[in-house]
Write a structure and sequence with these properties.
alpha+beta, 12 helices, 525 residues, rod-shaped, five-stranded antiparallel β-sheet
Length: 525
């Protein structure tokens, strides 16, 4: 993983620990603001509906009060019918003023009043009908006492002016008002698309809501109107008339201000988060650079300590050889030759181990390797070392060819490292076995010894760098970590099983090369 990616992840972690709680609080705050903005808009529409209802109630009350005044002034006069005709000319909103008595023919009676309502009016009760259409405008019939028993003054109130008042109510750019009678019939509409329903009497989506409000059922504050638009609504009821006023405004327009504020706040929260990540990224890069520098010094120190120890041991032996050579005794020449040969071999392995650390496995350069033949090659390379240690070295082949792809040099260095370790761990007369098999679709090379085993507490850290406990010869603790690095670079895995007093098995598992692999397999425990 690159330093840049690690820095970004650390910056994201810092943001998650420090900024995310703030962002979550901001999100909750924005949600609360959105809800409060919607509630405030609904309350404003409700207040406008109350004002509109008051204006409608005032208009109706004024018309009825005018009718009462006319009735009391001329209703008990002998020429009441002539006087009422004159009043109709002066007050056009009081249409069809007439004197109603028990002798009035049916054609002279108000069309919207039922017989029992007319009888109540003649007994001195003020009566008003429901709204209906008269000459393409809403109207209602009203009868009031005339001041003389058995007589009442009736008029058809023209609600055209009321309709105009409702149409003049505007909320924002697209908001409007609606008026419904006690039956839910739309009698006035500020929305041009809904005015046709005033003339036709057809129900609109708000009709059942208005009728329910008269009966005490609350109306929703948000709904779909007759045009299918999402609107906020404020409702008011005229209990004296049984009418309902609704003021509606498209939700998009009503919440535009709140949404704009939310967008600014949301953008601010996002910018804060990005700024925090950027700052965290910069600090993470600096911290990683400092940690990397510190780790380099620590690594250099560990390497220097190991190299100093091991090369110091080698120098001690070389000084002893030098002293023997300085004696010029021919009897010591064979001993000097053998010692120099051993030390040169040790130093060669030392250089090879360091060389392995710098060589990278490149998949594009991998070649097919037959694992049985590979194991034989490893045995040949380690045979001399095994002979010196008086340890047997044998290979157990798979029953058929088993192919993998890889860097032969690196894989052989890894296998030789494990084999030499197994030989070192074995007593004279013991045997080390290289076993080749197929297991779970993978090619496996196992190195088994009969040594003293590895302590359980050592196994978890066995593949860590500079962790060797050996200090005889060249053992810096780089061998097993390098083996794991090589195996992982080939897409494989390394595992170890060990039991004190019985021995250890290192298991290299590599992907098979399907083009060459045999279909036969040997189970691997």
């Amino acid at each position: 993983m690159t330093r840049r990616r690690i820095a970004f992840l650390l910056a994201a972690l810092v943001a998650a620990c420090g900024v995310v709680p703030v962002v979550l609080l901001a999100v909750f705050g924005l949600q609360i603001l959105r809800q409060r903005g919607e509630r405030a808009s609904q309350e404003a529409l409700h207040a406008i509906a109350d004002q509109a209802a008051a204006r409608v109630a005032t208009y109706i009350a004024q018309q009825r009060e005018m009718l009462r005044a006319v009735a009391m002034a001329v209703g008990n006069q002998a020429d009441a019918e002539r006087r009422l005709a004159d009043v109709s000319l002066d007050a056009p909103s009081l249409g069809k003023l007439r004197l109603l008595s028990t002798d009035s023919p049916p054609a002279a009676r108000p069309r919207a009043l039922k017989p029992e309502e007319i009888a109540a009016a003649l007994r001195g009760t003020e009566i008003a009908s429901d709204t209906y259409l008269a000459e393409l405008s809403p109207a209602m019939d009203v009868c009031v006492p005339s001041g003389k028993p058995g007589r009442a003054v009736c008029a058809t109130l023209d609600l055209l002016e009321l309709q105009r008042q409702v149409q003049r109510i505007r909320v924002g750019e697209q908001g409007y008002a609606l008026a419904f009678d006690r039956g839910g019939r739309l009698v006035a509409a500020g929305s041009g698309a809904m005015r046709a329903a005033v003339l036709s009497g057809d129900p609109v989506p708000e009709t059942p809501l208005a009728a329910g409000l008269v009966k005490g059922t609350p109306a929703p504050a948000r709904l779909r109107n007759g045009e299918g638009r999402d609107v906020l609504a404020g409702w008011a009821s005229l209990k004296s008339l049984g009418w309902t006023i609704a003021v509606e405004q498209p939700a998009e327009e009503a919440l535009r201000g709140a949404r704009t504020a939310l967008q600014f706040l949301g953008a601010g929260a996002v910018l804060t988060l990005l700024l925090s990540i950027a700052i965290g990224y910069i600090f993470a890069r600096r911290m990683l650079a400092a940690l990397e520098l510190e780790e380099r010094f620590r690594t250099a120190g560990r390497i220097a300590a190991g190299v100093t120890h091991d090369l110091g041991h080698r120098l001690t032996i070389l000084r002893q050889i030098e002293q023997l050579a300085a004696m010029n005794d021919p009897e010591y020449l064979p001993r000097i030759r053998d010692a120099l040969s051993s030390e040169v071999g040790t130093l060669r392995r030392f250089v090879s181990d360091f060389s392995d650390l710098t060589r990278e496995a490149k998949p594009q350069d991998f070649l097919p390797i037959e694992l049985n033949a590979f194991a034989e090659s490893v045995r040949s390379g380690a045979q001399g070392y095994a002979n010196e240690a008086k340890v047997g070295l044998e290979v157990q082949h798979a029953p058929s060819e088993l192919w993998v792809r890889g860097d032969r040099y690196l894989l052989e260095r890894a296998a030789l490292n494990l084999t030499r370790n197994a030989i070192e761990a074995s007593k004279p007369g013991a045997a080390v076995r290289l076993r080749v098999a197929r297991s779970d679709g993978q090619a496996v090379l196992a190195v088994e010894d009969q040594g003293g085993g590895i302590a359980p507490e050592r196994i978890p850290t066995l593949f860590e760098s500079f962790g060797s406990t050996k200090r005889s010869g060249v053992h810096l603790g780089m061998g097993l970590p390098n083996v794991r690095r090589i195996v992982v670079a080939h897409g494989g895995a390394i595992s170890v099983k060990s039991k004190l007093g019985e021995g250890t098995t290192f298991r290299l598992a590599l992907p098979t090369n399907g083009h060459h692999s045999s279909l036969s397999s040997t189970p691997m425990p």
